[in-house]
From TrEMBL:
It comes from the Eukaryota. Involved in biosynthesis of the thiamine precursor thiazole. Catalyzes the conversion of NAD and glycine to adenosine diphosphate 5-(2-hydroxyethyl)-4-methylthiazole-2-carboxylic acid (ADT), an adenylated thiazole intermediate. The reaction includes an iron-dependent sulfide transfer from a conserved cysteine residue of the protein to a thiazole intermediate. The enzyme can only undergo a single turnover, which suggests it is a suicide enzyme. May have additional roles in adaptation to various stress conditions and in DNA damage tolerance. It catalyses: [ADP-thiazole synthase]-L-cysteine + glycine + NAD(+) = [ADP-thiazole synthase]-dehydroalanine + ADP-5-ethyl-4-methylthiazole-2-carboxylate + nicotinamide + 3 H2O + 2 H(+). Homooctamer. It comes from Rhodocollybia butyracea. Belongs to the THI4 family. This is Thiamine thiazole synthase. Its cofactor is Fe cation. Its main location: cytoplasm. GO terms for biological process: thiamine biosynthetic process; thiazole biosynthetic process. The keyword Nuclease does not apply. One of its GO terms (cellular component) is cytosol. It is found in: Cytoplasm; Nucleus. One of its GO terms (molecular function) is iron ion binding.
């Protein structure tokens, strides 16, 4: 008995202290002006930050995240997959159409897909000309080897591209979020068309067999770009879903490696594979049955740019 009174006393003392100190009316209104006067940036043991309350940090995140989520439940274009193809599409689309609400859904905590390394865990990235023009556009230095260029570390390309995409005011990215399904509607002509995506936090999506029904969320959009790659826990998601939803007879399945055949084929065949759904990058190799190209990324860049043009065409039609 004594123990439990002790602990409840403890709890009430804790609450009082934190409550009184935390002054409910003052949360978020902490006057940082004198705080900033206290800010000291010297490194002789005097370094001081402006004061903050824990609640301010939580509210700064919650407010922005859920405002973005609320706003983007209706988007103009949803891009599924933030690999090299999806990110290039997002960049080119956002730069060409700054008035479009572009929402990227990326299943991993870390966006970038397979573009953090060149090949076999080696770091240099090879990009065949003329795709190097995109590197010049976003400011990625490279070594010119004639028919191709080499970026000294793949992460230099991907981090630069990612930072350019996230700096675009009309782009919102939700990473650690998976697309679990497609929204499919019948249009006035009775034709089935993709009208958005069904989402869940990835940790939830990966645990549907450990917990009972954890229903998803939705984002509606007249255009969806699928760029979920050819492998990985949820790779080629949309292509596989088209088959299971009866919108595609069967997967073409990615074929053997042939760089010279595969890269132009992926770029030139990036297209609207179902009404409202554009497919890009290596997901297209699975959808169509195209050759793979291995550790060269110019095809992903070209496919991403082509997908952006296709997205504009479909959105405007
Ligand atoms: O990098 P990937 O896998 O896909 P792409 O098409 O952008 O680039 C492919 C490229 O990296 C290669 O594979 C190279 C050229 N090699 C070719 C070869 O021959 O081997 O990015 C796909 C992204 C990843 O970040 C996934 O996490 C994400 O898509 N993703 C999803 N995001 C949300 N919902 C999903 N269901 C989902 N599935 C995958």
């Amino acid at each position: 008995m004594a123990l439990c009174t002790q602990s409840s006393k403890m709890a009430s003392v804790l609450t009082q202290t934190s409550e009184s100190k935390l002054d409910k009316n003052n949360i978020g209104k902490l006057n940082l002006s004198n705080g900033s006067a206290d800010v000291v940036e010297n490194y002789e043991g005097q370094y001081r930050f402006a004061p903050i309350q824990e609640a301010q940090v939580s509210r700064a995140m919650i407010k922005r995240y859920f405002e973005a989520m609320y706003d983007r439940v209706v988007s103009d274009v949803v891009i599924v997959g933030a690999g090299s193809a999806g990110l290039t599409c997002a960049y080119h689309l956002a730069a060409t159409r700054p008035n479009l609400k572009i929402t990227i859904i990326e299943a991993n905590v870390a966006p970038g897909g397979g573009a953090w390394l060149g090949g076999q865990l080696m770091t240099p990235m090879v990009i065949r000309k003329p795709a190097n023009r995109f590197l010049q556009e976003i400011g990625v230095p490279y070594e010119d080897e004639g028919a191709y260029v080499v970026v000294k570390h793949a992460a230099l390309f991907t981090s630069t591209l990612l930072s350019r995409v996230l700096a675009m005011p009309n782009v919102v990215m939700f990473n650690a979020t998976a697309v679990e399904d497609l929204i499919v509607k019948e249009d006035h002509a009775g034709q089935q068309r993709i009208a958005g995506v069904v989402t869940n936090w990835t940790l939830v999506a990966l645990n549907h067999d450990t917990q009972s029904c954890m229903d998803p969320n939705t984002i509606t959009a007249p255009v969806v770009v699928a760029a979920t790659g050819h492998d990985g826990p949820m790779g080629s998601f949309a292509a596989k879903r088209l088959v299971s939803a009866g919108l595609l007879k069967e997967l073409g399945n990615m074929r053997g490696l042939d760089m010279n055949r595969s890269e132009p084929a992926i770029v030139n065949n990036t297209r609207e594979v179902a009404p409202g759904l554009i497919m890009a990058g290596m997901e297209l190799s699975e959808h169509d049955g195209r050759n793979r190209m291995g550790p060269t990324f110019g095809g992903m860049i070209g496919s991403g740019i082509k997908a952006a043009h296709e997205a504009i065409r479909v959105f405007d039609s």
